[in-house]
Amino acid sequence: MDSLFSDILGFLGNVAGALGAYYAGFTWSFIIDLLTDYGVFLVICLGLYILMIAGQVSLGHAGLVGIAAYASAILVVKFGVPFAPALPLVIVVGAVCGAVYAYLLALRLGGFYLAVGTFALGEMMINIWLNSDYVGGAIGFVEIPFRSTSPVVGLAVAAVIYVVWRLENSRYGYAFRAIRDNEVVAGAMGVNVRRTKLLVWMIGGAIAGLGGALDAHRVTVLQPNDFGIYFSIQILLAVLLGGLASLWGTVFGAATVSLLPWMITTGDPRDRLMIYGLFIVALMVFRPQGLFMPIRGPTSGGAILRRWFGLDLGSRARSLPSGGEMAQTPPRGPGTLPPEGPIGRRQQ
Amino acid sequence: MGDRTVLRAEGLEVRYGKVIAAADIDLEVRRGEIVTLLGPNGAGKTSILRAIIGLVPPAHGRVIFHDGDQIYETQGKPVHALARLGIAAVPAQNVVLPRMTVGENLEMGGRFLVTDRAAMHSRIEELMEKFPVLRERRNSYAHVLSGGEQRQLAIARALVSRPRMLLLDEPSIGLAPLTLREVFGMLKRIRDEEGIDILMVEQNVVKALEIADRAYVMRVGAMDFSGPSAEVAASHRLRDAYLDS
Amino acid sequence: MHLPLPYILEQLAIGISTGALYAVVALGFNLIFGILNVLNLAYGATMMVGAYGLLLAFYIGIGDFWLAAALGVLFAVLTGLLVERVAVRPLRGNWWNIKVATIGFAMFLENFVTRLTDGRQQAFPRPFEIKYYSIMGLFEIANIQVLLLLFALGLMVSMLLFLRYTKLGNAIRVTAQSPEIAQCLGIDVKRVTIATFAVSGILAGFGGILNAATFSSVYPFVGQALGLKAIVILIVAGLGNTRGCLVVGVILGILESLAVGMGGSTYRDLVAYGGMVAILILKPHGLFGEVGRIGRVV
């Protein structure tokens, strides 16, 4: 399947890029820095990933991350809490915020309204930070101690990947996906939709909390507008690139989003954004299911093989195109009756 | 196939993705006929109708309309092109424009197909004679009408543009028995008085066979058998088709 | 807080005219949403193109404001058509993908213009000299505010007339309620969609130009803030509700203006977003109710 192929290509591309960069004169420590930045970004993306698996569209995810970032900065700088104990506190803050988002919006709204609502919450947060001198207002929160060293980030990444991996392959993972496909049916199948949604938001919030803290203590300066729609779009793009079939897609997607810019020779950030924009459009038109992973069905090795041999049944629905547009298939031979009864969907 | 043919479908095949809903379907409607397409659920009859209307492009096959000397092949053509040819279609559900009044709905029936406004308005008046319930509810919004009334509105709307042919998808759905009688009686009158040919997909076999001249019976995506409705009604194959799938 | 009446009245007047501007923006946005059920998030960028189009006209020597505006609007229309062709039509009504794709397109446009113009804020000409009129000796309003208000009213009226009495307008109304029925009635849905984007492009162009004229300046990302406000207005009013747009737009303008007057300019956006979140929680289908396909699940 070409998705696996492009998956390998993409990865090789990244690797080749990294190597090429090395040969172009980048030092190892620079590359490690890059990879650490990528690690922080990946943690943040995985937070969104787990939400999206459950169909929870969070368009203002950067806002959630920002809350945690500011919280961490406040704890460490204003209250003098050392980083190590502050981190779990921030994670809890993140979970709580996730729960708040859930209560306010996610438990009442779906799809479009949820997306817009989370976006609004994010923008509101930015506005609050801009207005609050306590956190430095528009100038920003400065002099945050640098604590997110590569080993710390590496450990965090490993932990989050492990948690997300266990989660998505567990009962909860299935519950999340069921909710994504069809809430009503999920409920009928015995999933406690309300509680599960709350859970996924708390987990997503917690991971965002971790990501935010790491971010704050890496860039050491927080500005409210850093957590605006552009950042949200980058996170979203990373997850979309990877497709929603498996967390490894997000791993590659985040790599592409954070490392790819360094591969583009024109260093002008505006060019990069321009290309991003076009890229997003192209992605949606040609491969909305993501660049790296197939979105249909489970993604364990055995499952992929089964799919190749046509032994799989059923599929996970992604956003369905509107009715009336059908795939054209090549014409069959004349005069033969179809082997089994059609199970075609009724088009309403 | 004589020169009385109005519509002919040859070898139609409809697929949804990889699933074949119906294959190798031939059917024909002749001038002045009411033809009904029957079959149990999942037989593919609605898919075929939709392919004829143009809402779904057929994977295979042809759809041909005769208009006097002209012959139009319409498979794969957009629906509005068919409407311009004088073929009016009424879907099974969501048949009315909910946010417009009955009067507006009727106007929309002709707005895009009829150039002579005055003629259109007099036609609407004429139709309201035939469908008195619409005259009563002229200024009500379409979404407050009952199912039966909506169905009548949809049919009337389709008639505003004086089509040559009417394609109906399950006109009996959701109709109470009394309304059923009215609506089907109406369809027969329309054919008699205006010479409009009708092809309808129907679930209500009895009612359909009452007014249809000929019937096709589909089963599991293929054409099972066909014939004049009296024959079809009497045939045991009809029962088999419905009970054995 | 005891504020002098003239000050409040002045803020009110500013609020109304700003609200009128918001309403103009929202109307164009609403048109596309009403017919397609999709969000065209490149709308803000289209507005920006309109404003820059006017600047371009000036640059190549067209001195008359309104003539230049016509060119700007033309650019906006072309942009709208491009968005439809590239980011909407191929995506077949999948609102999520379209949303993302139009964001991407907007990103591209905004950065493209940044590249072309160096990205800094640029001065924008005004259609006429700003004159202030004194109202009852209490406060002053500027003639451009009056222009905004009149324009918005005029636009809304024209939109309603257009939708009700022209062939295209009716086609749009029908398509918005049911593309399937529309087709059966002889409407070429594809062409109607394209036309809708074109009309919405006109509205966007004017909106962008008016906005730039009001603030005397323009920058490449100006479309973002306005586009977002448009979404807020739409959601608060109820998606697809034309009349609601004007009302909510003006209310928003007034509330924002009062908030700024009392608390300072940084609280302005809070009103919009806070209001939207409140509506989403309390009355998600909008204050005036959605208009559009019944039974649509959003």
Textual characterization of the structure:
- The complex is a heterotrimer of chains A (348), B (245) and C (298).
- Chain A has helices spanning 2-23, 28-53, 61-78, 83-106, 111-131, 150-168, 171-181, 183-188, 193-219, 229-242, 247-263, 269-286, 301-308.
- With 348 residues, chain A is mostly helical.
- Chain A has one domain: ABC transporter involved in vitamin B12 uptake, BtuC.
- Residues 295-348 of chain A have low confidence and may be disordered.
- Chain B is of the alpha/beta class.
- Chain B has helices at 45-53, 79-84, 102-111, 117-130, 132-136, 147-160, 177-194, 205-211, 229-234, 236-244, and strands spanning 5-16, 19-30, 34-38, 60-67, 70-73, 87-90, 165-169, 197-201, 214-219, 222-228.
- Chain B has ten helices and ten strands.
- Chain C has eleven helices and four strands, in the order H-H-H-H-E-E-E-H-H-H-H-E-H-H-H.
- In chain C, the strands form two sheets. Chain C has a two-stranded antiparallel sheet with strand order 1-4. In chain C, strands 2-3 form a two-stranded antiparallel ribbon.
- In chain C, strand 2 and strand 3 form a beta hairpin.
- In chain C, helix 9 packs parallel to helix 11.
- The longest helix of chain C is centred in the first third of the chain and has 32 residues, at 5-36.
- The termini of chain C are far apart.
Based on secondary structure, the structural category of chain A is mainly alpha
Order of helices and strands of chain C: HHHHEEEHHHHEHHH
Question: How many helices of chain A?
Answer: 13
Average pLDDT for all residues of chain A: 73
Largest sheet of chain C: 2 strands, antiparallel
Q: Quick one: overall form of chain A?
A: globular
Q: What oligomeric arrangement do these chains adopt?
A: heterotrimer
Output the structural class of chain C.
mainly alpha
What's the CATH architecture of chain A?
Answer: Orthogonal Bundle
Helix fraction of chain A? 55-70%
| % residues in beta strands of chain A | under 5%
